[in-house]
């Protein structure tokens, strides 16, 4: 392939890469300067070279990272050098690249029997803790709760009781029993759908980020959505939107 053909393809790959040249350079410098022991652990484990004495990142982009390490054989005076390319899953930016490297370092530490977590993993957890929204359950206000419960009880009473209390006869004249029954059924269906959606999202969140969601809060949010509907879900949806905004800003 001619050089004229290679250059457009190289520019096209660079354009598609979510990591720009400056981002790649910053990541490489940061990993080599601040997390050299973690990079060395990756080289020792995955490179099957426990005697490696130094390692560094020589190339990094959204597709993977290349690590080079040195070691000295007993029978040789000069150090030997080797390198390995580690492929990433699909990444969207610097944060997800650091997460990939953190996962490699954590696996290497466990395999090597090192007692402490990699520094990169520790730092990543601290950053994540600041950018993760708290999904602890919170009841809506007293007035919304009272209004919803009173409304459900009233509609249910008018829908299921033919001879209503004399004080509610005027409401029966305004809304027939059949209409109240349809309102009750529709409300219950909507609340059930809301509860199902909340349960599914909480389950997904618990799987991806267990530090954000546990079974207790999942049950509370589901029951809250089933009983109080949008008055409970408004807070939940606001937290979800805030989490997506924080994730997009990382």
TrEMBL record:
Residues 1-11 have a biased composition (Low complexity). The chain crosses the membrane at residues 141-160, 181-206. Residues 25-89 form the DUF2470 domain. InterPro entries: DUF2470, Haem_oxidase_HugZ-like_sf. This is DUF2470 domain-containing protein. Residues 1-22 are annotated as: Disordered. Keywords: Membrane, Transmembrane, Transmembrane helix.
């Amino acid at each position: 392939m001619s050089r004229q053909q290679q250059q457009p393809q190289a520019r096209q790959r660079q354009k598609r890469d979510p990591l720009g040249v400056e981002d790649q350079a910053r990541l490489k410098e940061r990993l080599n300067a601040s997390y050299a022991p973690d990079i060395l652990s990756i080289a020792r484990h995955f490179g099957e070279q426990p005697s490696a004495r130094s390692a560094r990142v020589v190339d990094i982009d959204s597709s993977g990272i290349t690590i080079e390490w040195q070691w000295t054989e007993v029978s040789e005076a000069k150090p030997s050098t080797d390198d390995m390319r580690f492929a990433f899953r699909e990444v969207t930016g610097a944060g997800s690249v650091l997460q990939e490297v953190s996962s490699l370092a954590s696996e290497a530490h466990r395999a090597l029997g090192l007692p402490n977590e990699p520094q990169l993993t520790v730092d990543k957890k601290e950053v994540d803790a600041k950018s993760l929204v708290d999904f602890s359950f919170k009841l809506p206000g007293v007035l919304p709760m009272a209004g919803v419960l009173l409304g459900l009880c009233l509609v249910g009473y008018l829908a299921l009781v033919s001879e209503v209390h004399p004080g509610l006869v005027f409401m029966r004249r305004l809304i027939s029993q059949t209409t109240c029954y349809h309102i009750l059924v529709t409300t219950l269906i909507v609340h059930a759908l809301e509860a199902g959606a909340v349960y599914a999202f909480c389950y997904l969140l618990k799987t991806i980020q267990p530090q954000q969601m546990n079974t207790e809060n999942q049950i509370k949010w589901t029951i809250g959505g089933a009983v109080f509907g949008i008055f409970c879900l408004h807070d939940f949806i606001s937290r979800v939107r805030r989490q997506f905004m924080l994730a997009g800003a990382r």
